Amino acid sequence: MTAATLDKEWASFGGRQQLYTHQSEETGTPMTFSVYLPPQYDVGPCPVLYYLSGLTCNWENVTAKGGFQGPAAREGLIIIAPDTSPRSDDVPNEDRYDFAIGAGFYVDATETPWSKNYRMYSYITHELPAVLAKTLPNADFSRQGIFGHSMGGHGALTIAMRNPSSYQSLSAFAPIVAPIQVPWGQYALKGYLGPDQNRWADHDATALANAVGWDRDILIDQGDSDDFLEKELRPGLFSAACEAANIDLTLRMQPGYDHSYYFISSFMDDHIRWHAERLK
Amino acid sequence: MTAATLDKEWASFGGRQQLYTHQSEETGTPMTFSVYLPPQYDVGPCPVLYYLSGLTCNWENVTAKGGFQGPAAREGLIIIAPDTSPRSDDVPNEDRYDFAIGAGFYVDATETPWSKNYRMYSYITHELPAVLAKTLPNADFSRQGIFGHSMGGHGALTIAMRNPSSYQSLSAFAPIVAPIQVPWGQYALKGYLGPDQNRWADHDATALANAVGWDRDILIDQGDSDDFLEKELRPGLFSAACEAANIDLTLRMQPGYDHSYYFISSFMDDHIRWHAERLK
To answer: What confidence tens digit (pLDDT) does each residue in A169-212 have?
Structure first.
């Protein structure tokens, strides 16, 4: 594994907002991710917090609009924002926003033609941390947190629950919590993993709550004016599963908030603080 | 003057990020602007702070990426982000980024074909406040501040200096301070106002420092890695003029920062605080 290439860097809140590209072995494509290095990075090791984005997004949406740099500078956290899928003219695609490019759903696809490139689960959990280790000498990978929005909230929940020794803190904004039971998830998991629903459960936070649990706490913020709340997100399915499994979930229904970055940025400081308290 | 039409609203930091459109008499086109209403707006009158954007931008750039909502919610300020020019298929345009659509330079054009629509000075100073007064009953127009970025910093400086009874606080990010002496300004002022440079001085902050002064203070942040620093911005011209005219300017050269929204957002909180302290 070699280091990623620094493409661009902006001074930001006393630290550095960076953009990197590397050739991914998992996806077979170049992959771009952003890194925020807080001012503390120049002094010593800092914890690493991964932000997984939602449908259609790449590194740039949350990096430009999420407002994480100020809180991360205050708390001394490194923020990593990867892409949501491989992205190249050479990878197979469908003409819809909720599958294939921009919609990797953080799984390793088993079905043709997707299985060759759509390996976002292994990319996020293994390849990206290894690349980062070569790239960021002062990143402390013994202290990692993960959060995300919508499809990325699904990714954060499922990735953390399946890898509890890798991630010490977990939160989400308006996550897809039960993909097996909602249209976005059913289409994507069938496409990537095939029709046998038994193979979907490893990628369903509500199923994982019962199957593997989570022995730390979880913060979820969800707007009650989110257009996707009833059909795609359904946080009540996850909160019921957490209650049954004795998982310490704080689910905050935020009155008036929708699914946008105006919602995410409003609660970004709370989430950064949540992770910082658990990673320091 | 009638109220503007509310097109969209997002909950944001306990307040409301709104988007309005109205038919402008000055520009002869529909004009769109954003309004942030802090939570305090629902309780009583709040001061109004105008943010004027730079070349190519409309309301959305700073509204999505500037990070003003959190500080404005804390301080109880209303933030208004107008467009940078009329914007319609019917208005004359040139195929360049620094003149005509997206580049109104906050002047009232006198030259054909621009004079019919490019009336951003009168739009910002007179029509927009009148429309807002009909639209936002709890906005306190006796307490107004103004700031902006690059071309919008030029707009903020020149508009405030020419209307000191209307604006009680003033700041800028990387402003064009001497358009008469730099290529962006020379092209635009010649196009809008004609070749007689005597008619440009009312729209040049450095000339206005000597001509009319400013009896309050001014905050300017400028990145020292800004690609436009030497050729287009040249803050030293303005600081010399302020010194000669006894104007209380705080010019902060920020090491490593460029011209981007990563720069603006890094110092947004300082600027919001600056205005709040002077408007409360």
So the answer is: 999 999 999 999 999 999 999 999 999 999 999 999 999 999 99
- Which residue of chain B is at minimal alpha-carbon distance from A68? B67
pLDDT by residue (tens digit) across B23-40? 999 999 999 999 999 999
> Which of A279, A269, A277 lies closest to A73 in space, CA to CA?
A269
Are B256 and A223 in contact (CB < 8 Å)? no
Residues of A with CB under 8 A from a CB of B: 10-14, 17, 64-65, 67, 69-70, 223, 225, 254-258, 260-263, 265-266, 269
Cα nearest neighbour of B266 on chain A: A13
Q: Which residues pair with A108 in a beta bridge?
A: A119
For residue A238, the cross-strand partners are none
Q: Model confidence over A12-53: pLDDT tens digits? A: 999 999 999 999 999 999 999 999 999 999 999 999 999 999
Is the CB of residue A50 less than 8 Å from the CB of residue A2?
A: no
User: Do B132 and B153 form a contact (C-beta atoms < 8 A)?
Assistant: no
Across the interface, whether the CB atoms of B269 and A70 are under 8 A apart is answered yes
How much is the ipTM here?
A: 0.96
Chain A residue numbers with beta carbons less than 8 Å from the beta carbon of B265 are: 12-13, 67, 69-70
Looking at residue B1, its pLDDT comes to 80
Within A85-127, residue ranges assigned H as helices are 120-122
The beta strands (E) that lie in B120-195 are given as 139-148, 169-173
Helix residue ranges per DSSP H, chain A: 59-65, 69-75, 120-122, 128-135, 151-162, 183-193, 205-211, 235-244, 261-279
Cβ contact B106:B155 at 8 Å: yes
Write the single-letter amino acid at B170. L
- Which secondary-structure segment (H or E) carries A37? strand A30-37
Tokens of A1: 């594994």
User: Is B258 close to A11, i.e. CB distance below 8 A?
Assistant: yes
For the cut 90, the answer to whether the pLDDT of residue B90 exceeds it is yes
Distance CA A65, CA B274 (A): 23
pLDDT per residue as tens digits for the range A135-153: 999 999 999 999 999 999 9
Residue to mutate among B262, B270, B272, with most A CBs inside 10 A, is: B262
Q: Which residues of B are catalytic?
A: 150, 226, 259
Q: Name the helix (H) or strand (E) containing B7.
A: strand B5-12
Q: Is B11 close to A254, i.e. CB distance below 8 A? A: yes
